[in-house]
Amino acid sequence: MSETKANFDFRPLMFALILGGIGALLNSFTYPFLPEVDLVFGNAAFVMVAMRLLPKYTLLTMFIAVTPLYFAWGHPFGYLTFGLEAYVLAQLRSRGWYVFFADLAYWLCLGMPLTIAIIWWREADFSLYYLFIGFKQGFNGLLYTSFAAVLIFMLDRRSYLSWQQQPTLKRTVKAQLTYAFVLITCLSLIIVSLTISRSLIVNSQDYVSKSLQDNANKSATLMQAHLNEHQTLITMMASWLSATPQEQWQELLNTSQALHSGFITMLIAGADGNISQASPERLLAVVNQNGKFSVSHRDYFQKPMAGQDLYTSDVFQGQGFGMDMIIAISAPVLPMNGTPQQPVAVVEGSLDLNILSQMSMAKLGEQHTRLVLVDQNNKVIFASDELALKPLDDFVFQDTSSSAAGQRLMLASAGDKSFAYHSIELENQWRIYALLDYQYILKQIENEYLLIFIILFGSLLMTTALANQISRRLTRPLNFINKQIGYHDHQIKHEFKPLYEETGVEIEQLYDEIKRSRTALFDYQEQLEDKVAERTQALNKANQRLQALALVDGLTQVFNRRYLTEQFIVVRKACQRSEATMAVVMLDLDYFKKLNDSHGHQAGDDCLVATAKLMKQAFDRDTDIVARYGGEEFVIVAAEIDLDNLQQKLEQLRQTIAEQVFVNPHLQPFQVTVSMGAVFGRADSFSELDSWLKGADQCLYQAKGAGRNQVVLESWIKKDELKATNS
Fold it and tell me: What strand order describes the sheet that includes 674-682?
């Protein structure tokens, strides 16, 4: 029993878990490239596992490494694309593919089309931007795959594991040289392309940012000057009216409104709030038609009357003389004597914001730049028509700027679009935004990376052709040597032909060494035969060890059902010869399925291993059999044991298991219980193991029905007979 070993090798599992953890750590710090586009490097972990282990371990590493991307990206589709990539890489690697060529085939045939299809399915407004994301995924895949392949290639023999599951790739020198050239060229080209492209992106962003800033400043200056001009006009109007007789107010009002077309209307309201003068004069007809028209309830009347100062209102929609979007600028008219006292009137001008927006857009030189002006409450005053924003709507503007290296633009989303922007606050706390649709910026980047893809594939073809030519020159003499060796017969001496004159010195030395070695080959024939005999003997011993392992359960390290069936016959006959009593016990873990569901299958396996260990400690005699019968069921065969000792041992075992504390993968403690059914009798009670197991199973059923965590023992020997037997 002590010489048996577990069949399961934990080293591949640990290798997959460790690389998965490293990959998850790297993927926790993705490299922001563009909005919604990150470069990931941790996936190199599952590429390395695919080069050494089976698909199931590759998928395990992939799941661990990609999990941080699920939380970063907010969707699970990475598990699909990268999981399929991991599976394809492992499968093609097992069929003799180089991993880089396997990954190139995956992204061209499956990865990029699948990524683009997912984006098309998720995004109602599919654009070239999302097409670029699909191409970027393939670009990124080749980056981390080539990095992983170069790392393994550079480690050389140190990367080969004694327990690796993937076959060692046997390739010609020509194929190896070609692969090495392609790998290094591709990795170098991708890194250089990324570096150069990031520099171009940064310069482009600086230009766009400066352009947006200039446009925002230009528009802000224009708007502020326009507001200041009309505020100054209202202030001057108030002063002029204070020094002008009231019968001349209408004429002065008409002249001012005609000279400053920015005011859509102007009016004068007396101290009682009723309009007395208005411009254009046609508004007076509206006033006279309704008798009196009072604005006493309006802010632009109340504030100047109370504060005796210039007042500029918030943006509102006109009601009395039109439905235009306006702001009211008003000032109090003091009495002509100039002494501080209550104003006699208020002069007000309604500034037409449509004119303001038209003037701003006319001064804007950028074809694709859009403007938005909001007030201090973030209400839209005016916006470019392309933005489809209505006046007085809330301006929903979410900043999405990234702190990534090289990211110079202020980015935000408005509606379903992303914009680069620059904003400036005016003196009255209004804010103007200069926006540029990010799609226009991406077009240049998309074209650049499409060109990079074309250059990459062209370089791969050129590198392959060059590597073939170089390797042909190197492998031609090697092929010649191989043919010469093939002509050589072990029983007949062969005259080797001379090599080509252009052959390298190293290959000539190799050829000479081969010739010397072949002449000494006959001396080793007998030694080889002896070694074969020794290996045959070692193989026989290994087969014997394998037969021993076949009788042990791989998980719990107790005997399996096969051993139980074979050895029970021996134990029972021994007890029968000595007229001794024996027992068969069935043990079952309570609520084992619920335990697996709650704490995981690994925790369940730990419970099985621990339970088996405790059973072996309780029944440790050479004649005792502890075997795993199936699943969570175990069988104990105790030979030459009395009833009291059996009861004591079973109860102690039950209590010990119940007191055992386990910890699940989340470090949460839990306990398990077992139910046991046992039958006790003479060895000749039944000759077949199935009869003993049937009785023990019935007792186990009673223990389960009585509430579990208990022992039900049935004796097939009557008490008086038992006393006689014991005596």
Answer: 625-630, 633-639, 581-589, 674-682, 711-715
